[in-house]
Amino acid sequence: MPLPKAELHLHIEGTLEPELAFELAARNGVTLPYADTDALREAYRFEDLQSFLDLYYELMAVLRTEQDFADLADAYLARAAAQGVRHAEIFFDPQAHLARGVAMGTVVEGLWRALGSSEARHGVSTRLIMCFLRDESAESALATLQAARPYLDRITGVGLDSAEVGHPPVKFREVYEAAAALGLRRVAHAGEEGPPEYITEALDVLGVERVDHGLRCMEDPALVERLVRERVPLTLCPLSNVRLRAVDTLADHPLPAMLDAGLLCTVNSDDPAYFGGYAGDNFAAVRETLHLGEDRLRELARNSFLASFLEDDEERRARYLAEVDAYEFGDAVS
Ligand code: HPA
Ligand code: ZN
C-alpha cells in the first residue's frame, strides 16, 4: 500500500499521456505532427522550461470538449489514487484554451465532471486552482478572472505559471488583489528558473500562501530563514527539476538540505505525463536516490496535508493526517 499523500502541484494539462493524446486527436479530427506514441515520446527531451512549454501547449490542441477535459482528469485521478494520493489540488491553464476558442465553461464544467465524482470513484478529494500565464499580459489575466466569475463556486484559488524569467510576480499585483477580494486562495510558481527575489515578491506583492517550486530560495539564507519562520509551504517537483534541468541530476537535488533547514517541503509531480512519473514515483525516486528515511517520508506526507487548502474541512485533514501517522512502511514504498 502506498503512503497516503496530497498532491498540491499538478497541471492537469501535464497529465496528458501520449495514448490519450492520440485518442482525443482521432475523436476530434485533429492531426498531431507525430507518427505515433513512440515518436511523440521521443520528443520528450527538454532543454529547459521553455522547450517543455512549447510541446505542452502544442498538444493541448486535442482538448476540445467537456468530455475531453473530463476524460483527462478522470485518467489522472485514477493514476494518482493508485499511488496513494488522497487529496489533489489541481492547476488548469484557461488562457491556453480560451486562445484556441475553447470556452471557460467547457474547461471548468468538463474538469468538474471528473472532480465531482472523484471521491466516489477514486477516493480522492479535490480542489481546482486556476493559473494565469505569466508570459501573457496583466490585462489578459484580469479578463480571465472575469471570465471565471460564473464558475467561482468550483474554483478554490489562483496560481501563476508558464515562462518565469522576465515575468516577475509584480506584473500580476492587480489580478491577485482582485482574486483575494473574491475570496480566492493564492499560490504562484516562483524560484524554479527565476531568481530568489521572485519568491519574496510573490509573498509580499501577491500575498501567496504557498510557493510552487521555490527551489532557488536556497541561494538566499535570509529568505530560507523567513520561509522557515513563516512556515511557507513549498511544492517541490523533483522529477520535473531533473527533466527541465533545474538540477543536474536527482542526486544533486537540494530536498534533503531543504528539509534539514526546516523548510515545509512537499513532493509533487508537476506534469507527470512529461516528466517520468506521478506523485508516488516522485516519492519513490527521492527515497531511493536521496536516501530519505521513513521519518522524512512521513514528514513530507504530513506536510502535504498541512499545506493543503482544507481549512473548510478540518475533519478530513485530521483523518488524512491520522492515516499518515498510522502508515507502516514496506520495502517498495512510494
Ligand atoms: N513551470 C511553469 N509553468 C508550467 C509548468 C512548470 O513546471 N508546468 C506547466 N506549466
Ligand atoms: Zn508547475
In round numbers, the mean pLDDT is 97
Give the neighbour order of strands across the main sheet. Answer: 1-2-3-4-5-6-7-8
- Characterize the overall form: globular
SS summary, helix count: 17
How many structural units, i.e. domains?
1
CATH topology: TIM Barrel
Separation of the first and last Cα atoms: 9 Å
- Describe the biggest sheet? 8 strands, parallel
CATH class: Alpha Beta
CATH H-tier superfamily: Metal-dependent hydrolases
Cofactor: Zn(2+)
Keywords: Hydrolase, Metal-binding, Nucleotide metabolism, Zinc
Pfam family, one: A_deaminase
Family: Belongs to the metallo-dependent hydrolases superfamily. Adenosine and AMP deaminases family. Adenine deaminase type 2 subfamily.
Question: Could you outline the blueprint of secondary structure elements for this entry?
Answer:
Layout: E1 5-7, H1 18-28, H2 37-42, H3 49-59, H4 66-82, E2 85-92, H5 94-98, H6 104-115, H7 118-122, E3 125-133, H8 138-148, E4 157-161, H9 173-181, E5 185-190, H10 196-204, E6 210-213, H11 221-229, E7 233-236, H12 238-243, H13 255-260, E8 264-267, H14 272-275, H15 279-289, H16 294-306, H17 314-326
Describe the structure.
By secondary structure, the chain is α/β, with parallel strands linked by helices. The protein has one domain: TIM Barrel, CATH 3.20.20. The protein is built from 17 helices and eight strands. The protein has an eight-stranded parallel sheet with strand order 1-2-3-4-5-6-7-8. Helix 11 (221-229) links the parallel strand 6 and strand 7. The termini are close together. The mean pLDDT is 97. The structure holds hypoxanthine and zinc ion (ZN). The site of hypoxanthine has 11 residues, from helix 3.
